[in-house]
Amino acid sequence: MDKSNDNFIGKQLITNLFNEKGVFVLPANTLLSTDHIRLIKQHKIILDASDVIQLDKAAFFQIAVDDCTSAMENIFEQIRYNKSKRLPMIELRNEVIPFIQQVSERNDFYGILAALQSKDDYTYRHNVAVGILSTLLGKWLKLKPEDLGMLTIAATLHDIGKMMIPAEILSKEGPLTDEEYQLMKKHTTYGYEMIRDTVGTNHLQALVALQHHERMDGSGYPFGLLGHRITDFSKIVAVVDIFHAMTSDRFYRKASPLYQVLIQMQDDVFGKLDPYISRVFIDKLMQSMLGNEVELTDGRIGKIILILSHDPLRPLVNIGEDFVDLSRERTLGIVRVIPQ
User: Any idea which architecture 6-53 has in CATH?
Assistant: First the structure.
């Protein structure tokens, strides 16, 4: 099989692309996915290095995430307005999953997180975020490639049942009433049924939609399951779902500072979240901070130079000629990581 175009995946077209008969194939600025490359091959076009540009890391993350979010919005709205419970898996596999996998392969947690920060499209961007970050966490947990592929799809679809919830509830500014909250919780069972009834998915993926709000101590919903009855995929997605939700601006509240989120997650290890999965996530997340600049709660900017094994959430930070040991300076914390 001709693979001459394959190394252009993830690069951006400079100009509009036409085949030899002048038929329009792709517009300028397209970020090339495996599906685009397949289309280009069908038109018997051989790309040249002068046809594309290699984006810098931040630009690639932003364009890939924005494109995935737009595709997810189209998929979600197609379901909402068609009242269809069958998911468009071809669109998902062609327009979303390849970029989620490409972004996660870069293994730059904070560069990725910066691109994922919600604009005014949290409902859709959150699904992309959970897909990407769950894939990263799956790699850190050393999942087999075939399991990792299943997890990526399951995580990206975890909230698909929300398309059966009235839009005015999803976008409500302020707390939900008890009646609205009971209706919102039904997105788990709706999602389970939608994925279960779609060709090309499996039961494990459907269970992630059903169980991602279950908690180890039985305090979650819809069934209040204890940890041993919750699947590993669901436990992974639960950790990432909580992290991205808390670090994102929402209709009804601002994002929480990073250190508050991590401390809350560490506290939740003892009851609500799977302890092993949570610790891997938090440890890898903190190790990813090494060498990065961070903003502290007092407004100062410094660089993390050491993660302390006895207190990983409170590293050693270099600020100018000073060194701040956050394990001793308990009133200080990290607000955000500044991507390199």
Answer: Alpha-Beta Complex (3.90)
